[in-house]
Write a structure and sequence with these properties.
By secondary structure, this protein is an alpha+beta fold. It is built from two helices and four strands. It has a four-stranded antiparallel beta sheet, with helices on one face. The chain starts with a strand and ends with a strand.
């Protein structure tokens, strides 16, 4: 399963690294891309990923999830 996550608050490459680091804390998640220009992070997992867990970990790092789409 893949998910696109629109993340608000990223303004530089350091922000991209923080969002990637946050997502990597989620169990069994592979971070495929975090794009500063589009504000989209793409993750993949063989397990079901709870959207609230995604929002929570990104929030802990100081960013905001605008939306999550399963693709």
């Amino acid at each position: 399963m893949k998910k696109n996550i629109i993340v608000n608050g990223m303004s530089c490459q350091k922000c991209v690294a923080h969002v990637k680091e946050a997502l990597e804390e989620l169990k069994d998640v592979n971070v495929l891309d975090v794009n500063l220009e589009t504000k989209i992070a793409v993750i993949e997992s063989n397990q079901e990923i709870n959207d609230e867990d995604i929002k929570s970990i990104i929030d802990e790092y100081g960013y905001e999830v605008e939306s999550i789409e399963t693709i």
